[in-house]
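Deliverable D2.4 — example input (structure tokens):
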């Protein structure tokens, strides 16, 4: 469970009483990958991340995808989940193209922690004629909130949600760390054989930083929206990768930072 009940002394006005509070749970998870290299088997540790319990296999596969170790479910031999650790074994015929080591301790807030250089970018997606009506876009934050009962109880969990362009919520993952939530979402779709995410929208519950846009770009996502602000590097990346980036999304307003022609008044033909 991504939450835990703890005892508290609760003050209300001038009185105190014993109560309980729901907190977002956080546990260390070591992520490792077994792979073939020069005709021998190797095991690399990508790092120790602090994450909410649950969906550990999705978390590992999403991180491996973003780091260039894994591109399809056909490359996975097995996934071993143990308390505090996940080992993804790649098939013997798979030799990852981007198997740069990254041994580190990642906090729940980490994105590019431990890197000496920015990750190599994927080729930009082909320009898309996909369109999303503004009225439908305005509805998505409420749909996200309705699907986040754990956040309503704890106030501590970030979310990454996947929508199609009819506004249907296809998948959602929550985590104490916003990067973990997105890795879990993309890892879930990878394991289901449902990448790339062309013609889909990812909604982030917080801000949209460069490292989150890099993960979305690796999954070929067409639209990325955030409740908070994007960063300058995120905007530059979205522009180069043909991603429509939306920030400060609220019920009746938003900013469209890149490729605004995809946000329309109505669906074409209506």
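Example output (designed residues):
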């Amino acid at each position: 469970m991504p939450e835990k009940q703890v005892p508290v002394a609760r003050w209300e006005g001038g009185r105190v009483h014993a109560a309980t509070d729901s907190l977002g749970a956080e546990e260390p998870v070591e992520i490792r990958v077994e792979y073939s290299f020069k005709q021998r088997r190797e095991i690399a540790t990508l790092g120790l991340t602090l994450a909410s319990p649950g969906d550990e296999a999705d978390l590992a596969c999403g991180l491996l995808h973003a780091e260039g170790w894994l591109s399809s479910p056909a490359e996975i031999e097995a996934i071993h989940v143990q308390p505090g650790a996940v080992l993804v074994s790649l098939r013997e015929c798979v030799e990852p193209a981007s198997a740069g080591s990254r041994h580190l301790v990642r906090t729940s807030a980490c994105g590019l922690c431990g890197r000496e250089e920015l990750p190599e970018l994927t080729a930009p997606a082909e320009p898309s004629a996909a369109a999303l009506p503004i009225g439908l876009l305005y509805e998505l934050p409420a749909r996200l909130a309705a699907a986040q009962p754990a956040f309503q109880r704890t106030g501590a969990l970030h979310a990454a949600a996947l929508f199609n362009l009819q506004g249907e919520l296809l998948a959602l993952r929550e985590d104490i760390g916003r990067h973990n939530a997105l890795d879990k979402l993309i890892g879930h779709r990878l394991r289901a054989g449902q990448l790339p995410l062309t013609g889909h929208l990812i909604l982030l519950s917080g801000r949209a930083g460069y490292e989150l846009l890099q993960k979305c770009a690796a999954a070929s996502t067409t639209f990325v929206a955030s409740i908070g602000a994007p960063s300058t590097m995120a905007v530059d990346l979205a522009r180069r990768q043909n991603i429509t980036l939306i920030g400060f999304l609220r019920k009746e307003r938003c900013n469209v930072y890149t490729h605004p022609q995809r946000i329309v008044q109505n669906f074409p033909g209506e």
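The first helix runs from residue 56 to 66.
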